[in-house]
């Protein structure tokens, strides 16, 4: 490929997306509402994130990201079909996730241009921290949102799982600098970050970082840590569901401007009061929405964090009344 002129010939597609686009046959319980694409490389990512099967430190399968498999298809075929699916209302967004490699911005620019050729689907790009000129290039190509993943909720954990502790190229301050730059280029509310619950942070630390992101105009998307075979963290457990539910609710209240970290009460680093009345709390729980997948508009990421048998950390659809009744019990004990 010559410097961004042509998109890469092949691309990975999440298995759920491949089914929705008719690229492969299969049955899925929850259809993705966003088309999830992942840059294809022969080798591994240049970063070393301890939780990620794409990391160069992982001996896991190269066709996995989080719990999802990503088969390879022809780029033009995929993007043509994604355009059709957008017109038919089957998807509402295209998300291109990128490994870290030298020509990645050329590839992303060419891919975004191709998406735009086939439809008006809004595009999210999830990538490593980029400098202003590269962010501007993506913005000028018509990319709507960019996501730069912090993943970790504290500097110490960041260093341990993504930075110096695993020989990775990333720094906590570098990520925040890139997020600030991204907000300048894409505008407040048009930048996302991914935050993983269950990497060893306390509830208080997590909520504090949620608030910090929101205050700088960055929308945090919640993920539950998922142990993947072959990764450095393969033996670590996923987070307790009760704690995840609390953090989802805190996330909802903070992102909706209904409460703040400073209004909430923590005891022994655990969240014990959300800073709203019990009536308000009950009403918000019964909206169901706080427990749905969070992220860019229209992103539902089915089965990224979940085993098919459950539990469902992020609901890819509105939870049923029965499911909400079960969720409510976590808050009433
Ligand atoms: S929140 Fe969803 S659509 Fe946005 S970058 Fe992350 S995975 Fe992609």
Cα end-to-end separation: 58 Å
The ordered string of helix (H) and strand (E) elements is: EHEEEEHEHEHEHHEHEHEEHH
What is the gyration radius calculated from CA atoms?
19 Å
Give the strand order of the largest sheet, numbering strands 1, 2, ... along the chain.
5-1-2-6-7-8-9-10
Biggest sheet layout:
8 strands, mixed
What's the CATH first level? Alpha Beta
Low-confidence stretches: none
Helix/strand class: alpha/beta
- Briefly note the CATH topology name: TIM Barrel
Shape: globular
Bound molecules: iron/sulfur cluster
Q: Treating each run of at least 4 consecutive H or I residues as one helix, how many helices? A: 10
Q: Could you state the CATH homologous superfamily?
A: Aldolase class I
Mean pLDDT over all positions:
94
Can you describe what's shown?
By secondary structure, the chain is of the alpha/beta class. The chain has a single domain, classed as Aldolase class I (TIM Barrel, Alpha-Beta Barrel). The protein contains ten helices and twelve strands. The protein has helices at residues 15-20, 75-87, 104-118, 132-141, 155-161, 172-186, 203-215, 241-255, 278-287, 321-332, and strands spanning 10-13, 34-39, 64-65, 68-69, 72-74, 93-97, 123-127, 145-148, 191-197, 218-224, 265-267, 270-273. The strands form three sheets. The protein has an eight-stranded mixed β-sheet with strand order 5-1-2-6-7-8-9-10. Strands 3-4 form a two-stranded antiparallel sheet. A two-stranded antiparallel sheet has the order 11-12. β7, α4 (132-141) and β8 (145-148) form a beta-alpha-beta unit. α3 packs parallel to α4. The longest helix is centred in the middle third of the chain and has 15 residues, at 104-118. The chain is globular and about 55 Å long. The model has no long low-confidence stretch (mean pLDDT 94). The structure holds iron/sulfur cluster. Iron/sulfur cluster binds next to β6, β7 and β9.
